[in-house]
Amino acid sequence: MRLSPTLSAYIGRQFLLWFLAVLGVMLAIIYLLDTVELLRRAATKPDATFEVVIGMGLLKLPEIGQQVFPFVILFGGLYTFWRLTRTQELVVARASGISVWQFMAPVMLTAIGVGILLITVLNPIFSAMLSRYEQMENRYLRGQTSSLDVAKSGLWLRQPGEDLSYLIHAESVVPGTLELRKVMVLLDAPPGAPAGPSGAPQTAGRLDAATAVLKEGYWDLREVWYNRPGRPPEFLARYRLPTELTEQRIQESFASPDTLSFWELPRFIDMLEATGLSSIRHRLYWHSLLALPVFFAAMVLLAAAFALRQSRRGGVLGLVAAGLATTLVLFVLRDIVRALGVSGAVPVPLAAWAPAGITVMLGIAALLHMEDG
User: Fold this and answer.
1) Residues sharing a CB contact under 8 Å with residue 270, sequence separation 6 or more, in sequence order
2) What is the C-alpha R_g of the chain?
3) Phi and psi for 204 in degrees, rounded to 5?
4) Is the pTM of this model over 0.90?
5) 111: which strand partners?
6) Are 205 and 229 in contact (CB under 8 A)?
């Protein structure tokens, strides 16, 4: 028997209602706990007033909310299927010839739609809120004005190019600016390359400068010693080093990937790879976003399997225990696989898609065993 559009819409609405209810409860609990933690951290910070902490908690809430979304889908699906079974609605539907795959389809489509909405519309908003939160955290709780202030082991930047490519190392960065101190530049230019803006030929060599300030289109190096093979060192008061980097790009490269929106990530990943900076974390985060709709569908499969099994045996406590155990296992699995991806032990696409793929296979196997086994 084919599932009617009216029944499909009814089941989908039921799931969406309980999904929003579970999400609201979980976000309220998370906000309360996170605000208490922020208040503890702000206790010794005179600039971090109560209003600032409340605002920071609200700005951080979407970032944590995105992490619990899959499990809100799971618990929303569990309660939806359990309630429909308890009220005999699914019993009547199955007695009329509707299979578990049919009445599960509206819930799965709704979950996939929520995933697509999350990554395409909500994620850019959430990433902007998280970026603002990190700025406030650096300012009020850490006493920093730049994400580069913590760079104690030095800063490495690479600039490729047809006429000139080079590698920059700086021992420190002036807080609140992009002024580099104790700078070393390793030049690598092809034969016949044109002279630089200062008149010095851009050949392979090394530049040692006291400071370097990023300007529009170039690095402004001061008190420079220019060392080239076969020539004596040359002192230059100033030297202009062309670059395509901007302050925003460098700052963002040191920020967490979730401060960038889904639409900005591909372009930013290309920029990181072109400048020699590691893009593993950003690529892993982008693939994880792509896998979210599939992961949400997998949560629905597991919810149906647990709810139908417990409805036959009876007992709400068993249903809740199964959901909590599954949540714990999936959290651990995702963290382990992502850690392997960040370390380079497994390919990034595999690390991002493996949790969703494994969960889908487990859910399908459980439902096939229950229905046809």
Assistant:
1) none
2) 27
3) -60, 135
4) no
5) none
6) yes
List C-alpha distances in Å: 12 to 76, 109, 110, 111, 272: 11, 8, 6, 9, 42
- Within 10 angstroms of residue 312's Cβ, the number of other Cβ atoms is 9
Q: Which DSSP state fits 222? A: E
> Which structure tokens are listed for 193?
């390359």
Closest CA to 3 of 109, 112, 83, 86: 109
pLDDT tens figures, 345-364: 889 999 999 988 988 988 88
Contact, 306 vs 322, CB < 8 A?
yes
Residue 98 near residue 3 (C-beta atoms within 8 A) = yes
Helix (H) or strand (E) holding 131: helix 123-136
Q: How would you label 100-118 residue by residue, b for 16+ Cβ within 10 Å and e otherwise?
A: bebbbbbbbebbbebbeeb
Whether pLDDT at 45 is above 80: yes
Domain spans of the chain? 5-143+279-372, 155-249
